[in-house]
């Protein structure tokens, strides 16, 4: 018994050392930011191989004979299935994530109600660098204090079994582009067509490179998926009439990252163009036409 224990400890220590050496070699061979993804996946393969090798080796040391080994393996598997049900489900989620290519490190996703960039993918958990929410999304849970799709600074760990319980939104997997909208209200007495032209010119100026990059990706999506409608990558302005103004909504395409910077740059250029054309942004104004009559009654001390 004591010899088996020493052999087990020595074997496990040897596996840990070999795995550490292999990870170090991978870090040297794939040094630099460009090798981050390769280092990550090599570390994953080393970790899985070391885990499987350790389990097999320990079983061979402590169980003698193929019949006993099979029986012990069956009892062990049954016990682990009951005791580690959630952990096994999380590991199954990890396998599904890899096998179905749901996401990988570097992807921008939403999983389990958490949105951000995947910075680590483990056997049980996925680590996400959390992003904020736009004002239109502030009602979504959990609430955010960052009014844009930029990092909040929080790291969130989500168990991999969430892929079985909730949808996973991937912003970068097959089509790393997003459609955004920029809305501007214009007074009825102003020429909305001038503002429409300004918005389209600014959008084309800022998104021309994005459109050229998006067309090949869109072609690849049509080859792999059934798209009923043909998505339009060119910017377009939609017009809606309200009680107070004409509302112009610019629909444009942006990359999955840098959407807020693009929105900011386009807004500045559109405002500059409107000011040059002598057109202002509409705002809600109210005029008081008449006050109702007011009657004031005073009470004298002798009337009390």
Distance between the termini: 104 Å
Q: What low-confidence regions span 5 or more consecutive residues with pLDDT below 50?
A: none
Report the CATH C-level class of the largest domain: Alpha Beta
Spatial order of the strands in the main sheet? 4-3-2-1-5
Number of helices: 7
Number of strands: 8
Annotated CATH architecture of the largest domain: 2-Layer Sandwich
CATH topology of the largest domain: Alpha-Beta Plaits
Number of domains: 3
CA-atom Rg in angstroms = 31 Å
What is the general shape?
A: elongated
What is the H-and-E element order? HHHHEEEEHEEHEEH
Structural class: alpha+beta
What summary fits the major beta sheet?
Answer: 5 strands, antiparallel
Strand content: 15-25%
Mean pLDDT: 82
Helix content: 40-55%
Protein model, in words:
The chain is α+β, with helices and mostly antiparallel strands and 304 residues long. It folds into three domains: 2-83, no CATH class; 108-170, SH3 type barrels (Roll); 177-276, Alpha-Beta Plaits. 47% of the residues lie in helices and 18% in strands. The chain is built from seven helices and eight strands; from the N terminus they run ααααββββαββαββα. The protein has helices spanning 2-29, 36-62, 66-83, 85-99, 162-165, 192-224, 259-276, and strands at 108-111, 114-121, 125-131, 151-159, 169-170, 177-186, 236-241, 246-255. The strands form two sheets. It has a five-stranded antiparallel sheet, with no helix packed on it. Strand 1 and strand 2 form a beta hairpin. Helix 1 (2-29) packs antiparallel against helix 2 (36-62). The radius of gyration is 31 Å and the shape is elongated. The N and C termini lie far apart (104 Å). The model has no long low-confidence stretch (mean pLDDT 82).
């Amino acid at each position: 018994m004591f010899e088996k224990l020493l052999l087990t400890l020595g074997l496990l220590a040897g596996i840990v050392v070999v795995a550490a050496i292999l990870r170090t070699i991978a870090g040297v061979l794939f040094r630099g930011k460009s090798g981050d993804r390769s280092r990550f996946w090599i570390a994953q393969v080393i970790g899985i191989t070391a885990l499987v090798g350790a389990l097999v080796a320990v079983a061979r040391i402590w169980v003698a004979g193929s019949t006993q080994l099979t029986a012990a393996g069956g009892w062990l598997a049954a016990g682990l299935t009951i005791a580690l049900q959630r952990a096994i489900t999380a590991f199954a989620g990890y396998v599904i994530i890899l096998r179905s290519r749901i996401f990988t490190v570097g992807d921008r996703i939403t999983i389990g109600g958490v949105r951000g960039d995947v910075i680590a993918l483990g056997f049980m958990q996925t680590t996400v660098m959390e992003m904020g929410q736009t004002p239109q999304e502030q009602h979504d849970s959990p609430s955010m204090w960052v009014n844009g799709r930029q990092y909040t600074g929080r790291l969130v760990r989500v168990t991999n079994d969430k892929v079985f319980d909730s949808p996973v939104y991937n912003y970068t997997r097959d089509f790393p582009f997003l459609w955004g909208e920029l809305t501007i209200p214009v007074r009825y007495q102003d020429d909305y067509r001038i503002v429409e032209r300004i918005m389209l010119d600014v959008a084309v100026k800022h998104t021309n490179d994005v459109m050229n990059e998006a067309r090949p990706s869109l072609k690849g999506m049509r080859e792999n998926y059934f798209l009923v409608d043909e998505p339009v990558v060119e910017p377009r302005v939609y017009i809606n009439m309200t009680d107070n103004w004409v509302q112009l909504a610019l629909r444009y395409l942006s990359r999955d990252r840098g959407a807020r910077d693009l929105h900011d740059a386009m807004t500045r250029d559109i405002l500059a163009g409107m000011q040059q054309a002598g057109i202002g942004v509409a705002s809600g104004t109210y005029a008081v036409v008449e006050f109702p009559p007011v009657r004031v009654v005073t009470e004298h001390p002798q009337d009390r």
